[in-house]
Write a structure and sequence with these properties.
By secondary structure, the protein is of the alpha+beta class. 39% of the residues lie in helices and 27% in strands. The longest helix has 34 residues.
Length: 922
């Protein structure tokens, strides 16, 4: 077993059992051909271990010295000219001058560098020369052996507990090791002496392709860092092999440092370990003493800087460092000294080559300590990274330009391996969705989970075409969910950049957030569709204006509205509903559209449309539900609506004044069909239909022979008329309603009570804006009341009118006339709105009074609204009584006009009435 007992070690080419048994390679340089032949034969005859290579020129000598393990150079400088120092000044071999020249006859440096001089004279000179050659060659070998032994002793002393050093010949023969290789490497017999390093490692490594490759790397790259795995029974052992070729003076051996990195490998991830090994795979080797002087460097390190090794040895490190870099290197050493647990570190320094150019070099520092633990120098392993740094700078500049372009365009980048489905997202990509890179797994499924379900199939089909090569460029637009749960529109563009045979293995693309663009585009499209729809609604309204003019009943009106809406292609289904039954539930009265058979499911089974319609009835405002891009929004309209393909619904109240006659519900298969101005136009349509329904009922009330008579009573003492009648024990009856804007006038007669006191009592009520007696006659009279609203105006909105309003005996009694098909509930609501605690006490059909004027011959048709108002006010206030209860000035003041204007209105009204009366008699 080889240990560290250096006395038992044999060094190749350095020491043998005796000088006579050592092979001595001699290069003999002499321009004299005769002398060359004589010495060549004489040396071989006198000494069997001497092998001679005879040359005549300096170039041939240099070539022979470079290609041969020279033991000694013998030369005669005469006739050779200038002899280069590289030939005679080196530590590889000694120089013997065999000449009859003197130092003055040739270059003095040759004589200074020569180990000895043998004069050319006599026949016995070859024998004497041979003895001299053997002598100087042996002394040189002894010096080499001694130097090598000293170096090995230093290596041995610096070897760490988990590391051994081994000297190998080219064939793997172990010439020396700092410790037993068998003990150091698992699976080896620690009692066996290791002589063949590679043969021994074959035994330790597994008999597998991987093990064979590891062994081959150890053989083929003796100086490169190589990591090998040695299988063990309990755990695998990992060894890091560093190899360094030693100078030829050391016998052409290779220094192998074998370090056990098992613990490091177990602690660190495989990737980190590989990165570490790559970082330490340097090309050059040098050592510095504690002063910073280079005391050793190999050929690679020197060549990197344009020097020969002997030119650098003995020089201070500052000689090859660029300005300012020395302090940086010293700081690195100080850091290692301050952290003894840290074995080594790496620093990038700028070196200055011999020709003045600069190179970027990465240095791995390992400190050297003496036996007392004091710092005694360092070992530096160097790698020229100039090209790498240049590429890094170019890449950085390119990356910065690319990032600037990407940032300016707000683009995110993805890199996808379609074979493994691994994806890399950059920060802009993830930032678009509100995530950081650490929050998203780098995998295809991460992207797929964020894509909108309605878009995923379409986009994956496009990606499949890219992956299969059906298309060269992939483009798609889809929605993705952000971290906050919102949906953003993304434009995605990608291309395959790498194929493995016919299989795509790398695709790169960009993401762009186009939400704002899509929003603007959708807004423009919606505006265009809205304008087209709005034009259709306006045409529908114009058409209905003409069509509803001939409607005679509520049912005919509702039927015309629904049919014309569906015929206009604005909607697929339309229906009008009204409250009915004891529970006031909403009941469809008229339906138009092919989907009418599912109406019960829409408003009963789902119940959602019922809510939409109820809200419209209660608020008197148009209610809409639309699918504007989010498929979950229209769920409010119910499953039945979605199953029919409806994407928009609207409930339009049919309003006349403060009365809602019913609700018009419409459905469309287009998203956002009833937004913005369209809803406003539908509100106009609802008011027009509500006005038509009221007008139809009013015409029926005037023209039908029969009418529906309803009587309501209330004993609420807070009603102003009831309160006044109770206070003075009188009977109060409304004799006329006059609608003025913004208030209304109410004329009431008082029987068996003081008109002045009753007027004052009524004026004290908060609901009465003003009260005055317009005519009084003892215990009776007529009082004018100014109010904000009357029950008559509310009844007119629902197609009904008051026949009588009487307060007597502590109760208020109201008789209402309406067409037979009138909405009794709407009438009841109108009365209840003005008369609290009112109840319906009677409901019957009765014949219309014969004195009702025909609508076509009524002379009031010849009056304007203002003329009729002035005449009515003049009559009710006693202007036409004699003597007059109200004069012209008082009447004009009440009307808010000047006296001349009053007389002008009266004269024109009188003339129109007289013309109408005489025209009727013709």
């Amino acid at each position: 077993m080889i240990g560290n007992d250096l006395d038992d070690v044999a060094f190749a080419g350095a020491r043998q059992t005796g000088a006579a048994s050592r092979d001595i390679e001699v290069v003999y340089l002499d321009s004299d051909a005769t002398a060359r032949e004589q010495i060549h034969e004489g040396l071989a005859d006198h000494h069997a271990d001497i092998t001679v290579t005879s040359v005549a020129t300096i170039d041939a000598a240099l070539e022979a010295a470079a290609s041969t393990a020279v033991s000694c150079l013998v030369l005669d400088p005469a006739g050779l000219g200038d002899i280069p120092a590289a030939l005679v000044s080196n530590d590889r071999y000694p120089v013997v001058l065999y000449t009859d020249a003197t130092a003055t006859d040739s270059a003095a440096t040759v004589f200074e560098d020569a180990e000895t001089v043998v004069r050319k004279q006599g026949d016995r000179q070859p024998m004497f020369l041979a003895e001299k050659i053997v002598s100087v060659a042996s002394v040189s070998a002894d010096r080499t052996e001694s130097a090598l032994r000293d170096a090995l002793s230093g290596i041995e002393s610096r070897a760490e507990a988990n590391e051994i050093a081994v000297l190998l010949a080219d064939d793997g023969t172990v010439h020396w090791s700092s410790d037993s290789v068998s003990t150091f490497v698992d699976r080896l017999d620690d009692t066996r002496r290791v002589e063949g390093f590679y043969d021994t490692m074959r035994t330790a490594l597994p008999d597998t392709p991987s093990g064979h490759r590891q062994l081959q790397r150890l053989r083929d790259a003796p100086t490169e860092p190589v990591t090998v795995r040695v299988p063990g029974s309990d755990r695998d052992q990992y060894l890091l092999r560093h190899g360094h070729e030693l100078p030829d003076a050391a016998g052409g051996l290779t220094l192998v440092l074998l370090r056990d990195i098992t613990e490091t490998a177990r602690r660190d991830a495989r990737t980190a370990l590989l990165d570490l090994l790559v970082e330490q795979a340097q090309d050059g080797l040098y050592t510095l003493d504690e002063r910073g002087v280079i005391d050793f460097c190999n050929e690679s390190f020197a060549a990197t800087l344009g020097y020969e090794p002997d030119e650098l040895c003995g020089e201070h490190a500052s000689t090859v460092l660029a300005s300012g870099e020395l302090s940086k290197g010293q700081a690195t050493v100080e850091t290692l000294l301050e952290t003894p647990e840290k074995e080594s570190t790496t620093a990038d320094l700028t070196f200055c080559r011999k020709d003045g150019t600069e190179r970027e070099v990465s240095i791995n520092y390992t400190l050297i300590h003496d036996e007392d633990g004091n710092y005694s120098g360092l070992i530096g392993v160097a790698r020229d990274i100039t090209e790498h740094c240049n590429r890094e700078r170019e890449y950085q500049e390119m990356t910065e330009r690319l990032n600037f372009a990407l940032e300016g365009a707000e683009l995110g980048v993805w890199d996808w391996n379609p074979k493994t489905n691994d994806v890399t997202f950059d920060e802009r990509w993830t930032g678009m969705l509100g995530y950081t890179r650490d929050e998203l797994e780098p995998h295809y499924e991460t992207w797929a989970d964020l894509v909108h379900p309605d878009d995923l199939d379409r986009v994956e089909q496009a990606l499949a075409e890219l992956k299969s090569g059906e298309t060269d460029l992939y483009q798609s637009e889809f929605r993705m969910r952000t971290k906050d749960g919102e949906w953003r529109w993304i434009r995605d563009i990608g291309k395959v950049f790498e194929w493995n045979d016919d299989e795509a293995v790398r695709a790169v693309g960009i993401h762009q957030d186009i939400t704002e663009e899509r929003t603007r585009q959708d807004a423009i499209e919606r505006q265009r569709d809205e304008l087209a729809t709005l034009n259709g609604v306006n045409m529908l309204i114009q058409d209905l204006i003409h069509a509803l003019g001939g409607a005679a009943t509520r049912h005919e009106t509702a039927e015309t509205v629904c049919e014309r809406i569906v015929e206009s292609d604005l909607c697929d289904l339309a229906w009008i509903g009204e409250r009915a039954g004891a529970d006031d539930r909403l009941v469809p009265k008229t339906v138009a559209g092919d989907n009418g058979d599912v109406l019960d499911e829409l408003i009963v089974s789902d119940g959602n449309d019922q809510v939409l319609c109820e809200t419209a009835l209660v608020t008197g405002a148009v209610q809409t539900i639309q699918d504007c891009g989010d498929p979950t929004e229209f769920k409010q309209c119910g499953a039945a609506a979605r199953e029919q393909g409806f994407k928009s619904a609207a409930a339009i109240p049919l309003v006349q004044g403060n009365t809602v006659h019913g609700v018009l519900c419409v459905y469309a298969d287009q998203p956002a069909a009833f937004g913005g101005r369209i809803a406003d136009s539908f509100a106009v349509l609802g008011k027009m239909v509500g006005y038509t329904l009221a007008a139809v009922q009013n015409r029926q009330l005037l023209s039908d022979d029969t009418a529906l008579e309803l009587t309501f009573e209330s004993e609420c003492s807070d009603i102003p008329l009831v309160s006044a009648a109770n206070a003075y024990g009188c009977r109060i009856e409304v004799v006329e309603f006059v609608d003025t804007e913004p208030t209304h006038l109410l004329y009431v007669s008082v029987d068996e009570g003081p008109p002045d006191a009753v007027s004052a009592h009524l004026c004290s009520q908060t609901e009465i804006l003003g009260s005055r007696v317009v005519r009084a006659d003892g215990s009776s009279g007529v009082i004018e009341l100014q109010v904000t609203e009357t029950v008559q105006s509310l009844l007119l909105d629902v197609g009904a009118r008051c026949r009588t309003v009487v307060a007597d005996d502590g109760a208020l009694s109201i008789t209402v006339e309406a067409p037979p098909d009138a909405d009794s509930r709407a009438i009841r609501d109108a009365v209840s709105d003005r008369v609290p605690d009112s109840t319906l006490t009677a409901k019957q059909e009765c014949d219309q009074a014969d004195n009702i004027l025909d609508a076509e011959t009524d002379p009031r048709n010849h009056l304007t609204d203002r003329q009729e108002e002035v005449l009515r006010r003049a009559f009710l206030t006693g202007y036409y009584a004699w003597p007059r209860d109200t004069n012209a000035e008082q009447l004009a003041e009440r009307l808010g006009i000047a006296s001349p204007t009053l007389h002008q209105h009266l004269r024109r009204a009188h003339r129109n009435l007289i013309d109408a009366v005489f025209d009727m008699q013709r």
